[in-house]
């Protein structure tokens, strides 16, 4: 069945490569007068039938702080996914490239952007499952948007999807995700705390010198990431709130967005 989310290949022009990820190459392109990023799904990388079902829901999620999925081109095999183009690439690289040159307002503004996109997902009962600075992208106007929401459900690589796997994002995962794979908006909140930490360290890797096993042990012992030097005390308190052991003790994105906004005098 052909939905509104089906992209006609005749409307799509492909250009240069802008990156590559778990699903394969990402090219820039043009679709109906719009600049787009096209994910060319590698053979065997994605459970395509499951994704097609979900694509309808995902194209309907629309917010200025989310990277828009415009549609899917299923006539090609393997299929390709058509997204809003984010000219300045992923947030982690963007932060590292601008080290020492970003103001407090800029850093807080990035956290606000991400929390707005996440509050929208939360209000739609949509769980991201892999929030991290590498999965946020930056537009030509320096707006940060949340990308790749829900996509790990369609990855066909055990190393990535099993919490025992070598590619599983343990360092962004809450204790209940590590132990029982129990994903929720509250586990997204934990990841958001780590993402704020990435922003305020200007793109450092969390728990840089620890293995995944050591991180799990440290978390169990109640240890947490330390306050980044650039983070104001009030921002660090919000991070620690995100890292409460019990999911119900963590804030919602709606509340966190409100708290971050009250720290900003933009
Ligand atoms: P995957 O979901 O396959 O793992 P990613 O989303 O990590 O792929 O994308 C890989 C890289 O491609 C990103 O790091 C980024 O540089 C680039 N990229 C992905 N999506 C976009 C986009 N919408 N606009 C611009 N560049 C993008």
TrEMBL record:
Q: Keyword Membrane on this protein?
A: no
Q: At which positions is ATP bound?
A: 39
Keyword check for Hydrolase, yes or no. Answer: no
One BP annotation, GO: intracellular signal transduction
Q: Which UniProt keywords apply?
A: ATP-binding, Kinase, Lipoprotein, Metal-binding, Myristate, Nucleotide-binding, Phosphoprotein, SH2 domain, SH3 domain, Transferase, Tyrosine-protein kinase, Zinc, Zinc-finger
- Name one cellular component (GO) term: cytosol
Limits of the Protein kinase domain:
12-261
Q: Which GO terms describe its molecular function?
A: ATP binding; non-membrane spanning protein tyrosine kinase activity; zinc ion binding
Family, according to the entry, reads as follows: Belongs to the protein kinase superfamily. Tyr protein kinase family.
User: What is the name attached to this protein's record?
Assistant: Tyrosine-protein kinase
Say which residues of the entire protein are included here: 355 to 620 of 620
